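Sample entry (106 residues):
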Amino acid sequence: MSTPDRPQQPASPQYGEQTSYAPAGQPGYNTMAIVGFILSFFISVVGVILGFVALSQIKKTGEQGRGLAIAAIIIGFAEILLGIILTIFFIAIAIAAANSGVYQTN
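Predicted structure, serialized as tokens:
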């Protein structure tokens, strides 16, 4: 029954009837994945940690950004590995220069 104050409500759909509800929007990007990706270029360890945290959150919430989180982890580990290799290289050069006899005194 409808009155001027209350318009008549549509009946709820019966079994098998099509509804015209709009599809639910997909959740946005995970903020930790974005921040982890950016920081992996500057502070590798923080980028790796945030990448792992973002992956965990994305698994629970279904947000987007899994690729960014994985990229943060890969880039962060690659930069850490490159830093270790360069450190070993420069230490080896310093040791070789010290043992080359350039600084020997007689």
